[in-house]
Design a protein that fits this description.
By secondary structure, the chain is of the alpha+beta class. The protein is built from 9 helices and 12 strands. Among the domains are: 132 residues, 2-Layer Sandwich (Beta-Lactamase), CATH 3.30.450.170; 154 residues, Histidine kinase-like ATPase, C-terminal domain (Heat Shock Protein 90). The chain is rod-shaped. The two termini are 69 Å apart.
Length: 435
């Protein structure tokens, strides 16, 4: 069958037919059994009484008794001999008697009447009772129709509840396959179909993230590599006629190093954005990690004649990727060092509170124009577009920091400190550090 809906309808139709036949058989069996049980006891008593009256009073007295019994009870009664001759009227009623061996409570139907035959113990007499069945088949038809309608409605509802959401999922898959990366399935079901919809949405989110990161990476690479490659090409041309070959080689080497650094940084930000599952989480003591980063950055700060002042009051750990956290804090700190004026200081504070570890890094540089504060975490954003990569970096440090913080369900905020520039990082705490 081509459609699931047709399968469901056919299945329920077959189930309806099978259940109806089963109900008919059960109903007929119940009606037959009830008829036998209904007449069994009274027929035994009536046969004994009729036999006694006939043997004591003859056919006339027997006729009176049978008339009185017929008037009091349902049906018509006859007493016959072993051959089936009516002992009152002499009419042959052998067609009422059972053929073959005698069955206790034998019953058959004739002209819409239920015929019950009860033989005496000695086999000389038969009591024949004809009466309408106490339970007619027609009395069950309304119930059969009610059950059939209920099953049909149930089948239609079930098929609609299964097929309709599957159609929505199929449409979303088709839209997504045609390039609409925003296609999602809205479903709050808790069953397997709801799980399928949520799995598709999760897959779509993942693919959209990967494709978006890939497109952005290609755009960023094509944009950012243009200038270094142009300078590198020019440097090679100058090497041909350069009087100082060592200086020319040194310049080429610097350009190559800048290219390598740029590519490595691009790959890092792309990995962190496109594969959050690559995080290898473990307990990280933020205080110790920050102290290591400050020590590593000390040489760069000393060259620029900048002091790093630290205030670390933290005794907690977070559950996270130590390399990503290191990259986030280090990028913020090196950014502050890069834009701090000579002779100034960079303040680093770490403290915990309200279930979070907070890292604040402040410099006393020129700050950022208020209209550009919202863009400082964008990839390749530079406040001064005229700066080259040697002076102002490639504009990825704070972008990487933001992504790393978000992967840890944290927050990162930048603001002007008047004077200077401050970045605040907050990471949720997992557990206290043992004393």
């Amino acid at each position: 069958m081509k459609t699931l809906k047709l399968r469901i309808v056919v299945t329920f139709t077959l189930a309806l037919i099978g259940s109806s036949l089963a109900m008919l058989w059960v109903s007929a069996s119940i009606a037959h059994r009830f008829t036998i049980e209904f007449f069994e006891g009274s027929m035994k008593l009536q046969l004994q009484q009729a036999q006694k009256i006939y043997e004591g009073g003859g056919p006339g007295r027997l006729a009176e008794y049978l008339e009185e019994t017929d008037a009091a009870l349902t049906g018509k009664r006859y007493l016959t001999d072993a051959g089936g001759r009516d002992l009152v009227s002499g009419v042959d009623r052998s067609n009422y008697l059972p053929t073959g061996f005698d069955l206790l409570g034998f019953a058959k139907q004739k002209n819409g009447q239920e015929i019950m035959v009860r033989p005496s113990l000695d086999g000389r007499y038969h009591l024949v009772v004809t009466a309408p069945p106490p339970l007619r088949f027609g009395s069950f038809l309304p119930y059969f129709f009610a059950v059939a309608i209920a099953i049909a409605l149930l089948g239609w509802t079930l098929s609609a509840g299964i097929v309709s959401p599957l159609h929505r999922i199929a449409n979303a898959v088709d839209r997504f396959g045609r390039g609409d990366l925003s296609a999602r399935v809205a479903s709050d079901r808790k069953d397997e179909i709801g799980n399928l919809a949520r799995s598709f949405n999760a897959m779509a989110d993942r693919i959209q993230t990967l494709l978006t990161a890939e497109r952005r990476l290609l755009q960023d690479v094509s944009h950012e590599l243009r200038s270094p490659l142009s300078r590198l090409s020019l440097a090679f041309e100058l090497m041909k006629d350069a009087s100082d070959s060592e200086a020319a080689v040194s310049r080429v080497r610097r350009e190559i190093n800048r290219l390598s650094q740029l590519v490595a940084t691009l790959l890092e930000v792309n990995r962190s954005e496109s594969d959050p599952s690559s995080m290898r989480t473990q307990p990280v003591a933020v205080a110790s990690l920050t102290e290591e980063i400050v020590d590593d950055s000390g040489a760069e700060a000393e060259v620029r004649n900048i002091r790093i002042e630290t205030q670390i009051h933290c005794s907690t750990v977070v559950e996270g990727d130590p390399e990503l956290l290191r990259r986030a804090i280090e990028n913020v700190l090196r950014n502050a060092i890069r834009f701090s004026p000579a002779g100034s200081c960079v303040q680093v504070r770490v403290h915990d509170g309200n279930g979070r570890v907070k890292i604040l890094v402040r410099d006393y540089g020129p700050g950022v124009p208020e209209n550009l504060l919202g863009r400082v975490f964008d990839p390749f954003f530079r406040v001064d577009e005229s700066r080259d990569s040697a002076a102002g970096g490639v504009g990825l440090g704070l972008s990487i920091a933001r992504r790393a913080v978000l992967l840890h369900q944290g927050t990162i905020i930048a603001r002007n400190a008047a004077p200077g520039f401050q970045v605040s990082i907050a990471i949720p705490v997992s557990a206290p550090t043992p004393p």
